[in-house]
Specification:
Mean pLDDT: 91
Helix content: under 10%
CATH architecture: Sandwich
Number of helices: 1
Number of domains: 1
Distance between the termini: 21 Å
Radius of gyration: 15 Å
Amino acid sequence: MAGRLGDTLEGSTGSGGWVAVTVSWVLDPADESFVAEGIGVPPGLRSLVVASEFTNLGSADFLAPPDVGLVLVDAEGTRHGRATATLTAYPRFRHGSIGPGQGVSGHTYFVVPRTETVLQVEWSAGTDVSLPPLRWRVHPAEL
């Protein structure tokens, strides 16, 4: 399933549950936010922040942080996993479970090569490749 930034997409958690996921925005680059927190961005790389929301549509708890399966995909098709930084201006997702009907929002951080063009944000709930990922297109005009 695919959409644009701001769209809410629904997908399987891989364990019989369902979630609604919204990728609200992408801050690219976010280098100034990292430097303001005393975190250097290595030469040749740039940082990004992705804001998203997850709502548990299932009847059982969903384990957080829900953004574990969130990646950025560049023009070469390379998937970039999340970075381990923490920014007070853009709080991470909390750890713990998300109960049925509950939602959480948070931010995910990425570091990618400065020359790469990010085309989309993807989310999948695990290693089950039979479950298609949710995808949000990122266009340069939306960055």
